[in-house]
Structures are given as structure tokens and as C-alpha cells.
Design goal:
alpha/beta, 6-stranded mixed sheet, 7 helices, 14 strands, 23% strand
Length: 263
């Protein structure tokens, strides 16, 4: 016979909330085959970002799945495979994050390339990763996508300054309303991005990791949203670089503010 049964849940609300999965592709290159390109903190920046986001497993995200490509592992082939992995894994219910730290340069035609560990500046088209490959992947991902770009770097010859590369056009293209990608970049236009041993990171990554650990919870509600992180990074980088570096964030109007971490 049919029957009606009333059930009362006495557990915690969080126990039955369906959380999204977080997929991270993190790339950082400090040690290049071309020794003139050597950096101090790019690979450490990627690893520190990953460690911070791993703490969100079981909290904001059901799981945090990471593909980390650091130094000699960050070859052109491995980076392209990583982009394919991200595209294959991410569903519309997930969140994808891409973190890139290393050298980024424009060729004479204005095409932007990320330099993998095995890059050869004399054979840039063959050995560099064109931005179009990155853009085409992240813009096609079905879920929420956040990209952190810290590719304006220079070697030791620059005295701790990360080289000037005009990244403004890259940011604007990636964050266009059509693809809905939120982009955090370390600096704007043709500005230097700075790194310093006293910070242990580049200025941008130091501010980013501090914010994700909780300092960007500007309203004290236990969560860090895109807008909060944007505001915190802007002020923190300005503070530690004494106004010499200005991060930029581009968020399409079609993408509402959403949390990326919880305290």
C-alpha cells in the first residue's frame, strides 16, 4: 500500500551540499635551458599557488585536481598536453583555474608567446607557446574559468624586474564577453612586474596567495570572491612595490561575482 514517510535531517547542511570540483593547470618556469632567461621565483609562484588552493578541498570544492608543470617539466609539449587535459576534464559544474608564471614576449608581428623551459628565442614559432593556444582552450571550457597571468618576467640581468611585455591586448581578448574568462594579470600595459627575495615570490603572487588565505575576505563573511580578490591584490601590490606595479583584472559584464575560496 502507498505510504507517506516524513524524514528529518539532523546532520550538518554542508554534508549534502554538492560542491564543484576545481581543476588547476599551474605552469611556472624559473630554470630555462637558455640560462640568460633564468628567473628567481616563477616556478615557486606556481607551486605556492597550488598549495594554497589545495586547502580548499572538502571546503569550497569537492576535490582539487592539479596538473603542475614546473621548470624542466614545463616543456612546450607538456604545456599543450596540460591544456588538453584541462579541456577534457572540466564540466559545466566545475571551476577551472590556469596559473602561468614565466617569460612572456611579443614577436615582431605582435603575437604573444609564453616561453616554456625549452624555448629558443631564435626559433620562437617552433618552441614558444602561442597565446592563441591558451586562449582557445580556456575560452571553450564549459564551467567557471579564472586565469592568473604573471608572464611579464626578465632574467637576472634585469635586476629583479620582470620584463616589459605589452599584455593589455592579451587580457582584453581573453576576457571578452564571448568567452567569459576572468583574468588577473600581474601588471598593466608595458609596466614592469617585480620580484624580490624579501617577498619570496613575485609581488603579484605574494598578494594573490595572501588574499586566498583569507586576507581578501574584506567583509568578514568567511569567503573570498572575485571582486574581493581584485580589490585586495590591487592595494597589496601597490603597497609592497611602493606604487611601481599596478595589477589589472578583467571580468566580463556577463559574469557575476562568485566565490573562489573560503576561510
Amino acid at each position: 500500500m502507498p505510504a507517506t514517510v516524513r524524514l528529518i535531517w539532523r546532520g550538518k547542511k554542508e554534508e549534502y551540499v554538492i560542491r564543484p570540483k576545481l581543476y588547476i593547470l599551474a605552469i611556472g618556469v624559473s630554470r630555462y635551458q637558455d640560462k640568460d632567461l633564468t628567473l628567481q621565483f616563477a616556478s615557486k609562484d606556481a607551486m605556492d599557488f597550488v598549495e594554497v588552493m589545495k586547502t580548499q578541498k572538502g571546503r569550497l570544492y569537492e576535490d582539487v585536481i592539479v596538473k603542475l608543470l614546473a621548470d624542466e617539466k614545463a616543456t612546450k609539449d607538456e604545456i599543450l598536453d596540460g591544456l588538453e587535459w584541462l579541456q577534457r576534464q572540466t564540466t559545466s559544474k566545475d571551476v577551472a583555474m590556469v596559473f602561468i608564471a614565466g617569460h612572456g614576449i611579443n614577436d615582431p608581428a605582435g603575437i604573444y608567446y609564453f616561453l616554456p623551459a625549452n624555448a629558443d628565442l631564435e626559433r620562437l614559432k617552433r618552441t614558444g607557446v602561442p597565446f592563441s593556444d591558451i586562449k582557445n582552450t580556456v575560452s571553450a571550457l564549459p564551467g567557471k574559468v579564472v586565469m592568473f597571468v604573471d608572464t611579464c618576467h626578465a632574467g637576472n640581468v634585469m635586476g629583479g624586474k620582470r620584463a616589459i611585455t605589452d599584455i593589455t591586448g592579451v587580457i582584453n581578448e581573453l576576457s571578452s564577453a564571448e568567452n567569459g574568462v576572468v583574468v588577473f594579470a600581474s601588471s598593466t600595459g608595458r609596466q614592469y612586474s617585480l620580484e624580490d627575495p624579501s617577498w619570496g615570490n613575485g609581488a603579484f603572487t605574494k598578494a594573490l596567495t595572501e588574499g586566498l588565505k583569507g586576507k581578501a575576505d574584506l567583509l568578514g563573511k568567511g569567503k573570498i570572491t572575485i571582486n574581493m580578490l581584485d580589490a585586495f591584490i590591487a592595494e597589496r601590490v601597490k603597497e609592497i612595490t611602493k606604487g611601481r606595479q599596478t595589477p589589472v583584472t578583467a571580468k566580463p559584464q556577463t559574469v557575476p561575482d562568485f566565490p573562489v575560496a573560503v576561510k
